[in-house]
UniProtKB/TrEMBL annotation, chain A:
The lineage of its organism: Bacteria, Bacillati, Bacillota, Clostridia, Eubacteriales. It comes from the Bacteria. Residues 220-275 form the 4Fe-4S Mo/W bis-MGD-type domain. Residues 139-169, 183-211 form the 4Fe-4S ferredoxin-type domain. Residues 80-119 form the 4Fe-4S His(Cys)3-ligated-type domain. InterPro entries: 2Fe-2S_ferredoxin-like_sf (IPR036010), 2Fe-2S_ferredoxin-type (IPR001041), 4Fe4S_Fe-S-bd (IPR017896), 4Fe4S_Fe_S_CS (IPR017900), Mopterin_OxRdtase (IPR006656), Mopterin_OxRdtase_4Fe-4S_dom (IPR006963), MopterinOxRdtase_cofactor_BS (IPR027467), NADH_UbQ_OxRdtase_ferredoxin (IPR054351). This is Formate dehydrogenase (NADP) alpha subunit. The keyword Lipoprotein does not apply. One of its GO terms (molecular function) is 2 iron, 2 sulfur cluster binding. One of its GO terms (biological process) is respiratory electron transport chain. SUPFAM superfamilies: 2Fe-2S ferredoxin-like, 4Fe-4S ferredoxins, Formate dehydrogenase/DMSO reductase, domains 1-3. Residues 2-80 form the 2Fe-2S ferredoxin-type domain.
From TrEMBL, chain B:
InterPro entries: 4Fe4S_Fe-S-bd, 4Fe4S_Fe_S_CS, NADH-UbQ_OxRdtase_51kDa_CS, Nuo51_FMN-bd, Nuo51_FMN-bd_sf, Nuop51_4Fe4S-bd, Nuop51_4Fe4S-bd_sf, Thioredoxin-like_sf. This is NADH-quinone oxidoreductase subunit F. Transmembrane segments: none annotated. It comes from Desulforamulus putei DSM 12395. It holds the Pfam family Fer4_7. The keyword 4Fe-4S applies. Residues 591-620, 621-648 form the 4Fe-4S ferredoxin-type domain.
Length: 351, 648
């Protein structure tokens, strides 16, 4: 494929044909703000915050969807661009609650970040503002459509990545809104609560119920680990504040990229649960007693040994788990056949 | 042979299963496959029944069946006329026929007597007998003849000033043939262009001819049709589509509706030719659901074209397959935008997508697609028939051909008119349109609906073609022309169009979704006298940003009504903002009603009629209006016989 040379803010760059202005600019280290663009999702070009000026063009094209052409001269922060960008931010803020103080997204919100970057305040266009009820009728996701900037990322991720198409645009014009069919709520709409929509939302319209009030983004440490639930082995970041896990998100790499299922994303309540088993217990005279690992394993060895002696290894059955890796399953098979002496081994995935 | 398209006798071999390339010509000039005087005679009779040549014994009472006349009762009129014809025993030589729109809807229901060309307006069922008497004894029914404001009467169709200034080439069939009979269309020469194309031309030659004709899209943008077809032809894909855009969403526009209702086959013929030229085998017509009559006639036209082998496999034994399906829209203006329209056909929400890729590369279901407007397609058979050179004699160098306009507003003769491109606004408005109603003065004309601009007095001598209009900030658009008199408030006009676009914005992009809302709010404040000069600056900035950054044509063009009124009627904006005054007296909040003491006779009529008891006064004493109560309904003004109530 042939290469194309153009200039962005008077710096020359050569890129493969088909590269967008946004990508070409990034290669020069020029950051153009985006709301609706996501490299994993289809090209959309709706929010228009990323518009740039191209010499000789009447319109200001959206850089996330416009491919560079030979000899193109692009300006990413010209007068005209700044006016447009500020106006777009003002328009978004005009229809947005003044809630950064308590909003869960503060510190990680694109709208907040760009308002700061371009010095835009709320109040330029007094007038109607949405007043939707906040939707919290499910265990995991808060939907505050008053904060939604209609970037459509949630809609696209749900249909293009997750394959559920639970949400889509409804109504028109100023009343356009992302909704479930007939506004029936996520629970009724077949949502699997994978949380991918929350992950991609650039503002505080979609947030995680469990994390409300649990910590600001800058207060959190992130510990990368493997999801304990299944053999897919998704890479997750546990978000930790003062030694306590307050949430999890996808690590952005590994098999899962930015996606998780409901368990990996929201199923970490057990970590600090008071009833969580933290030590091995052995039942003695009908009572459970805390013991050391050494002791517990000895007990298992003793009992299995007895069964094997009395009834033969074939008396023992082994059920392998989808929650462990292939390698661990392999080892379990060795344990069953060589150590326990049984070929009664099966896997839960076959049930 | 009940129908011209039927087989004339058992020797006639044509059927869709055994298609014959001469079929269409054979109907009008045949039979070709056998010689039989009787069959020739039968065909001639059918043709004469449609063409109604003068000098014959046969007469026709044409009743307009366009939407306008249908709503003013033309269906009942047909029944009464048929009855009267039967009663008078004339049924063997007089036929009553319903056609498409005559364009003169304001004066409907319209009746047209052929071949004499006598034209009756505002006909009621009770007039049926008198009209039939006219056919029996030749006496014209004077009271039904069209009269202009000066009282001159014009019994003949072609003398009426409204028609005299027109050049009817696209609309000739509307009002003359029965749109529900394919044989009528064939009798007046229909489908001959298709025959010519299939028998004598290559796809490249067809495209070449359309390119030479200079035909530009009538859907608004004026894109060269031949160029579009050539791009789609070049796309090396097996499946391609032709789409006819019949969404016609501009408020006040009904050009496409009339063509579809009055001459649906001309559009089908254009589509089949486009399919042949581009290499497509499937067409779609996307028609707005608010056009039930057009949909009914399209369905019947498609069905008949299939029945007679003009759609489907191996059309006229040429080896070319093409079929057309109809898709009804769901009432969104934005679905007239090409990519939104395609999404809608695909069953998705009608939202535009970014271009490129252009539809000719990746359109409907990602296949190369040609999208053309109804009127564009109706031009195609004409161009093939006339030849590009002849066609170019109409219109201007850069905008050849004619254009149909929907004239509305304060005109003497609102309606549908077809004029060559390049006529001046003055000729259209004051000639064909008959000038401004009620002796008022012309103030402005809005062209191209919510995407277009408002032009003023100084533009009246501007030729109406694509380029002249865009040079002054207006567009031909789809052809809506709303004429306003001195009583119109331009701020209110801008507000009206913005309210429309805001409601119709799909909501995908920020500037259009949020920007039009704020623009509308500012205009509403202006109309209420609450706006400041800062608001004006904001409005101008919003116009700029919305125009420059919106994703699709709806957003990009929606500031035009505001920008053009700001440019040509700025003082009116200033009056609203600075003086809190609406010079035209339209904006209710800025209007004050007052009773002139010297003129008031104290009759009490205003007092009695005021819905909110805002008027006080003793009988025979001058009355007065209490401003704090007045809701500015204007009833007192219309009731007062002494012109004592003044609006200011
Ligand atoms: C908001 C919007 C509405 C439109 N509505 C129509 C319409 O109702 N009919 C139409 O023919 N074209 C409409 N168009 C123009 C079409 O996008 C397209 O340009 C046209 O159908 C192409 O056909 P043409 O080349 O024959 O004009 C609309 C465009 C926009 C942006
Ligand atoms: S979504 Fe962003 S801008 Fe809006 S309140 Fe939350 S942090 Fe602030
Ligand atoms: S949680 Fe997952 S399934 Fe549910 S709406 Fe969001 S993306 Fe779709
Ligand atoms: S909820 Fe978030 S991701 Fe979805 S459209 Fe609104 S802002 Fe975008
Ligand atoms: S449980 Fe879900 S998040 Fe965890 S590894 Fe399996 S698929 Fe990934
Ligand atoms: S300009 Fe308006 S109609 Fe067009 S995509 Fe944007 S919001 Fe939708
Ligand atoms: S304008 Fe209407 S409300 Fe006002 S005084 Fe006249 S009749 Fe009464
Ligand atoms: S990021 Fe480019 S339009 Fe939204």
């Amino acid at each position: 494929m042939s290469d194309i040379t153009c200039t962005i803010n008077d710096k020359s760059v050569t890129v493969p044909r088909g590269t967008t202005i946004l990508t070409a600019a990034a290669m020069l280290g020029i950051d153009i703000p985006t709301f609706c663009h996501d490299p994993e999702l289809s090209r959309y070009g709706g929010c228009r915050i990323c518009v740039v000026e191209v010499k000789g063009w009447g319109q200001l094209p959206a850089s996330c969807v416009t491919e560079v052409r030979e000899g193109m001269e692009v300006y990413t922060e010209s007068e005209k661009v700044l006016e447009a960008r500020r106006t777009i931010l003002e328009l978004l803020l005009a229809n947005h609650p003044d809630d950064c103080l308590t909003c869960e997204k503060t510190g990680a919100c694109r709208l907040q970040e760009y308002a700061y970057r371009y010095g835009v305040r709320k109040g330029a266009f007094p007038g109607a503002c949405h007043a939707y009820p906040v939707e919290a009728d499910n265990p995991f996701i808060m939907r505050d459509m008053n904060k939604c900037i209609l970037c459509g990322k949630c809609v696209r991720v749900c249909s293009e990545v997750v394959g559920r198409s639970v949400i889509d645009f409804s109504f028109r014009g100023f009343h356009a809104k992302v909704a479930t069919p007939l506004d029936s709520g996520l629970l009724n709409a077949g949502c699997v609560f994978c949380g991918s929509c929350v992950e991609v939302c650039p503002v505080g319209a979609l947030t995680e119920k469990q994390r409300i009030g649990k910590g600001r983004p800058w207060e959190l440490d992130s510990v990368t680990t493997t999801c304990p639930y299944c053999g897919v082995g998704c890479q997750i970041n546990l978000l930790v504040k003062e030694g306590r896990v307050v949430g999890a998100n996808a690590a952005g790499h590994g098999v899962n990229g930015r996606h998780l299922c409901v368990k990996g994303r929201y199923g970490h309540g057990f970590i600090h649960h008071p009833e969580r088993l933290t030590n091995p217990l052995v039942r003695k005279n009908g009572q459970l007693h805390e013991v050391t690992w050494e002791e517990a394993i000895q007990e298992v060895v003793r009992r299995f040994g007895r069964i094997k002696q009395e009834y033969g290894g074939q008396a023992i059955g082994v059920l392998a788990s989808a929650r462990i890796t292939n390698e661990e399953n392999y080892l379990l098979n060795k344990l069953a056949r060589l150590v326990l002496g049984t070929n009664h081994i099966d896997h839960c995935a076959r049930l | 042979m009940i129908n011209l398209m039927d087989n004339c006798c058992s020797k006639c071999t044509h059927s869709p299963a055994t298609p014959c390339s001469n079929y269409v010509l054979c109907r009008t000039a045949g039979p070709f496959c056998h010689t039989d005087k009787g069959c020739e005679e039968k065909r001639k009779n059918h043709i004469n029944n449609v063409r109604v040549p003068s000098g014959g014994n046969y007469q026709q009472i044409i009743v307009c069946g366009g939407t306008g006349c249908t709503s003013s009762g033309s269906a009942r009129l047909v029944d009464s006329l048929k009855e009267a014809v039967n009663e008078a025993g004339l049924s063997d030589r007089v036929a009553v026929k319903r056609t498409g729109c005559h364009g003169f809807c304001e004066n409907g229901p319209i009746v047209h007597i052929k071949p004499e060309g006598i034209f009756y307006t505002r006909v009621k069922p009770a007039d049926a007998r008198d009209i039939v008497n006219h056919l029996a004894d030749g006496q014209i029914v004077e009271r039904l003849v069209y009269r202009d404001a000066a009282g001159n009467s014009y019994p003949h169709f072609h003398e009426i000033p409204f028609y005299a200034g027109q050049t009817l080439i696209l609309l000739t069939n509307c009002g003359h043939i029965d749109p529900e009979q394919i044989s009528d269309y064939v009798a007046v020469g229909g489908y001959r262009s298709l025959v010519k194309v299939l028998q004598h031309m290559t796809p490249e030659q067809v495209i070449e001819e359309i390119q030479l004709s200079g035909l530009r899209g009538r859907g608004g943008a004026g894109f060269p049709t031949g160029k579009k077809w050539a791009a789609a032809r070049r796309a090396a894909r097996e499946i391609k589509y032709i789409i006819c855009n019949a969404d016609e969403g501009d408020p006040g526009a009904f050009m496409d509706r009339s063509l579809l209702e009055g001459d649906p086959h001309s559009v089908l013929e254009g589509m089949i030719i486009a399919g042949f030229a581009v290499g497509s085998h499937q067409g779609y017509i996307y028609c707005r659901a608010e056009y039930p009559l057009a949909i009914k006639r399209l369905k019947s036209a498609i069905q008949q074209a299939r029945q007679w082998g003009l759609l489907g496999k191996n059309i006229l034994n040429s080896g070319f397959d093409f079929d057309i399906d109809l898709k009804e829209g769901a009432g969104a203006f934005v679905c007239g935008e090409g990519t939104a329209l395609q999404a809608s056909i695909e069953g998705l929400r009608g939202m535009p997508r970014v271009k490129p890729p252009r539809s000719t590369e990746k359109g409907l279901w990602e296949k190369p697609t040609v999208l053309n407007n109804v009127e564009t397609l109706a031009n195609v058979p004409l161009i093939i028939q006339m030849g590009a050179e002849e066609y170019r004699k109409l219109g201007t160098e850069q905008s050849p051909g004619t254009k149909i306009f929907a004239l509305s507003g304060s005109l003497v003769n609102p309606g549908l008119v077809e004029v060559p491109m390049g006529k001046t606004l003055r000729e259209i408005i004051f000639g064909t349109g008959g000038g401004i109603r009620d002796g008022k003065a012309f103030k402005a004309v809005q062209l191209g609906g919510p995407s277009g601009g408002c032009l003023a007095e100084q533009h009246l001598d501007l030729p109406v073609d694509f380029d002249s209009l865009s040079s002054v900030g207006a567009t031909i658009g789809s052809g809506g022309m709303v004429v306003m008199d001195e009583g119109a408030c331009m701020v209110d006009v801008a507000r009206f169009f913005l309210a429309f676009t805001q409601k119709e914005s799909c909501g995908k992009c920020t500037p259009c979704r949020e920007g039009t809302k704020r623009m509308l709010e500012i205009l509403e404040r202006m109309c209420r006298g609450e706006a400041t000069l800062d608001d004006l600056a904001d409005l101008e900035r919003l116009c700029r940003v919305v125009k420059n950054t919106s994703l699709c044509g709806l957003g990009q063009a929606c500031p035009n009504p505001v920008l053009s009124t700001l440019q040509y009627f700025r003082e009116e904006y200033m009056a609203h903002i600075v003086e809190k005054r609406c010079p035209a007296g339209v904006c209710a909040e800025l209007v004050r009603y007052r009773i002139d003491e010297n003129l008031c006779r104290g009759c009490g009529l205003c007092l009695k009629n005021c819905p909110v008891q805002a008027i006080r006064g003793q009988r025979k004493q001058p009355h007065a209006i209490d401003d704090s109560r007045c809701i500015k309904c204007g009833v007192c003004l219309s009731k007062c016989k002494f012109k004592a109530v003044v609006r200011s």
